[in-house]
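step=predict obj=Ger(X)C family spore germination protein n=370
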Amino acid sequence: MKRLHCLCIVILLLLPGCNDRLDLENMAIGLLMGIDLEGDDRLVYYLSSPVFNKQARKREEEAQAFTSTVVQSERKLDSLTNALTVRGKVQVLLLGKRLLQHEDWFPLLDVAFRDAKFTVNARVVAVDGPLIEIFQFQPKDKPRLPVFLSKLIDTAYERNITVKTTLQELHRQMFEKGTTPVISEIKKEKSIEVQGTALLNKQGKYVASLSKEENALLQILQRKTGEDLSLTIHVPQKQPDGSILKKKLGILPEKLKLRIRSAYNKDRFEFHILGRISFSLLEKQLPRFAASIPSPKLESIVNEDLQKRCADLIGKFQKARIDPIGLGLYARAYHNAQWKEVQDQWEEALSRADVHISFQTEITKLGPMR
């Protein structure tokens, strides 16, 4: 009898734990969130949630709220839907390009870092165009929009088309003085397409974009290349009139090593970047009479092309006064005394720095037929 009484007491103690249960039908689980500016710079928040009701025709429910904070937007969205809004499962955070052109947007995300229930693994993505076009995109041949966007960014990152920046990584980049933030960039035309990478300055303001080809070079310089890295090399030969053949080489790096050395001379920093690449030849798009270029000549062509394009890219960074490579981390590590003098104006110091880059490449595979 005593055992029965004890068992009843344990069951009664466990039952109150069910009082806060929430059914899926009664929740609006926000998987896709967006912040943009409309009209006279009015903040607008978007939220896309999956619909679990079998009677509903749409798979997602979109809502928008014109408020000044994320917390206020949650209350506003709760008044527009018949479910309780939950933001802790956000997979993708979209930021309008118009919003990113302001320097004071980052504090809008304060709730994401202050609320322990808010995931910091959400991918942060810049949108070139109105966010409403993204949230209204619901093709029948693709999965739910939040799932589609997260897979799109992950796949593009693996193929070195763009970067993959989470909320947690964005927070680190914003407060790290030795680097500047980079986030993915997409655009809605007929479909949603990854454009490349958006470059932000230290205040978070949008300053420039990188194309898909430039992003591959950025990831080489960042030592963050994915497995599927292929590069197109431009052959410096005169193009015959009327020819449809563009002289290019396709290479697949197999081994890639990057060494960065720093120095401080004459009141300015110096960086020497040396890249060593072993690659296989994917394609050699050349006229028949020029197809028999020897391997040393091909290696020289690859060296010169990569060196020129990377030097142009670094010049673009210096002109925009940004440091997505993280050269400031080397300055702080090896020249700490000089770094402390310029750490609050590092982008200005980098714009005056001397950066030299060179490549040494080696062909390991030419293919079964030459």
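step=describe
The first helix runs from residue 2 to 14.
step=end
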